[in-house]
Amino acid sequence: MSEVVVFRGGRVVDPSRSVDGVGDVVVVDGWIADVPAEYTPPEDARVIDCAGLVVTPGLIDVHVHLREPGEEHKETITTGARAAAAGGFTAIVAMPNTDPPTDDPAAVGYVVAEGRKAGAARVYPTGCITLDRKGERLALVGEMVDAGAVAITDDGSPVMDSGLMRLALLYAQAFDIPVADHPEDLTLAAGGAMNAGLASARMGLPGKPNAAEDIHIIRDILLAELTGGHIHLQHVSTRMGVEMIRQAKARGVRVTAEASPHHLVLTEDAVEGYRTEAKMNPPLRSAEDRAAVRAGLADGTLDTIATDHAPHHYDEKEAAFQDAPNGIVGLETALGIILTHVVGEGVIDLSTMVERMSCQPARAFGLPGGTLAPGSVGDVTVFDPAAVWTVDPKAFRSKSRNTPFGGWELKGRPRYTVVGGRTVWEG
Amino acid sequence: MTTAEPPLGKDLIGLEPLSREQILSILDTAEPFKEISERRIKKVPVLRGKTIVNLFFEPSTRTRVSFEFAEKRLSADTVNIAASGSSVSKGETLVDTARNLEAMRIDMVVIRHGASGAAGFLAERIPSNVINAGDGSHEHPTQGLLDLLTIRDHRGSIEGLKVCIVGDVLHSRVARSNIYGLLKLGAEVAVCGPPTLVPRSFAELGVSVFHRVEEAIEWADVLNVLRLQLERMQAGYVPSLREYNRIWGISTERLERAPRDILVLHPGPMNRGVEIDSDVADGPHSVILNQVTNGVAVRMAVLYLLAGGAPERAEAAKHGGEA
């Protein structure tokens, strides 16, 4: 007996096949099935009425921090995977800046095993570029890939040594994985707590200039060009950064890049009043930077929307601004924020949103999914584009509540998150 | 004795959020309080029964003592807490410190903290009045106010005066409070110092930027000279203190070339021979000790107003009443 799930009568948006129209999606035994137009499901099939809803290939977030091992008071692999499912994500890519860092095959294997146990969104691990994230020697990249790592990154920190970064970009090509970099020149960003500019001058906080990010973006582009490797630039936040990536793509450099929901929606104004829930790295920047990130998302310079979900315990954020840690949670607000303030404000259309939140993340990281083509994994996200709701951080599945979006009224909310034909979230 | 709407609100966190009228009312309230410190018995019952905690996370002598005199001359009961030797040095968070103070039912907290925003952070979490005695590089409002009062004492009015703040503007809470206060009272404001310590973005606040002190002296009626901390040299902002003195130091020789009689302020503590030469500090241009005297009066005024006192009743309050 086959297990059949039918998503009936929804607006199916699947840019991987240029599909946007009302129809059915059928998952049989965990895989997308090829069915005729007049398909009659078996009697024991689960039929989900999707009238008025949008059905897309499962959303994928290539940048989340699950904090396990080491900081389980902030998040665990299980709670993070559940938060992802509640946010409409069928797969997430976990960053390796855990404690200890995920820098060997055993640590990578642990993330894989815990992710499977969670039974929520799929969890794909990454491994560190360098041992212990120290930026000194390459980690066991090949063995980590064998254990399940889908990329390498020292996220949270850049690899400051350009020579080592060159080696990483060369070595990773043996395994066909991207090298993801958190682009930041630490000597320029040193001590910075927010964007450098008028607001930081007024507030008396040390600033991180755009140049700190831009210098590493161009460095990484030049190294990708030199080596032929695939560089994936994380959370791009500057206008020059976007422009340099645009030009690199035009030259054919293998570069992919992320935009985060907060850099698409907020500016440094959100920090006003020393609001630690708006403190992250890279910092929220100027309105011109935000406009450039939006334009980059629209024209495809920035391939993916990634949340940089960064949970922190509430009392760590309850501190003076410069003492509070960087980062905000994003998994459970991303879809609503993007639908309301990016699609809703006409920056991109719905199909482009699915492209940036599903198809391209899958492509950039070589992951299953990102399409509803027959034979693909049965990962499906169904959301109600008209549902109006208010963000209540206390209701998050994540262990942490550190969001600048608490109290925001959003339009658009996940209804079903389906992984391999199994419903992992129903809202 | 109390007004319905406290004239300053609950807290004094900075001069940026205050209106011109509020700043003037503090300066005007300070005038009658000056006289208390000249009496033989320096005590009036204005804050009798009020409990004030002076919470100093950073070392301070001048500001802490000035606040303490202001509080005691107004008859408040005061407690000093210094970060070293307190629970803070045992790892207690700012939030917990605040909650514990609150649990002891105090009326006011005067806080000095190394982090910008710390005073506002505390003010949002406790119902007591909070006075910022310096938070990181953000603001030091009572210093700004005493500078304004001293300038007004010597020049009659702030309106139209050209005031230049010289030195480490980047890291200075004194500079920020001066800029906001002076601009609101109608002064023209400039900042001067090495470009490493005087960020370009300050121009957007509405101030002129000089990088050569000769130009600043040519332009200014008043110089407010900031302390250059030794750490700035260690961090590479300036190559040496000697070079700083040669290029940006305020000397008699430089002041003598000024087209007008310049008033020189310094928030202290001074590095003689670095940002200011001794013959300037001790000379006829200097009003540095007047600043210290005015500091007590300004802080009395702030305490009185936050306790609900009315500016127009300050003179009467001195002679018996409580705030």
Keywords:
heterodimer; A: 427 residues; alpha/beta; Urease, subunit C, domain 1; TIM Barrel; eight-stranded mixed beta sheet; 13 helices; 22% strand; B: 323 residues; 39% helix
In percent, how much strand structure appears in the residues of chain B? 5-15%
DSSP strand count of chain A: 18
Helix segment tally of chain B: 13
Number of domains of chain A: 2
Cα Rg of chain B = 19 Å
Spatially, the strands of the biggest sheet of chain B line up as 7-6-5-8-9
The largest chain-to-chain contact, stated as pair and per-chain residue counts, equals: A-B, 19 and 23 residues
- The radius of gyration over CA of chain A amounts to 20 Å
Protein described:
The complex is a heterodimer of chains A (427) and B (323). Helices cover 30% and strands 22% of the residues of chain A. Chain A has 13 helices and 18 strands. In chain A, the strands form 4 sheets. In chain A, strands 1, 2, 3, 4, 5, 16, 17 and 18 form an 8-stranded mixed beta sheet that branches. In chain A, strand 11 (194-195), helix 6 and strand 12 form a beta-alpha-beta unit. The longest helix of chain A has 18 residues, at 210-227. The model of chain A has no long low-confidence stretch (mean pLDDT 97). Chain B is an alpha/beta fold and 323 residues long. Chain B has 13 helices and 9 strands. Chain B has helices spanning 20-34, 62-73, 94-103, 118-125, 141-155, 173-184, 213-219, 230-234, 241-248, 252-256, 278-281, 288-306, 314-318, and strands spanning 51-56, 77-82, 108-113, 129-135, 162-166, 188-192, 208-210, 222-225, 263-265. In chain B, helix 2 (62-73) crosses helix 12 (288-306). Classes of the chains: A alpha/beta (427), B alpha/beta (323). The interface between A and B is medium-sized, with 19 and 23 residues.
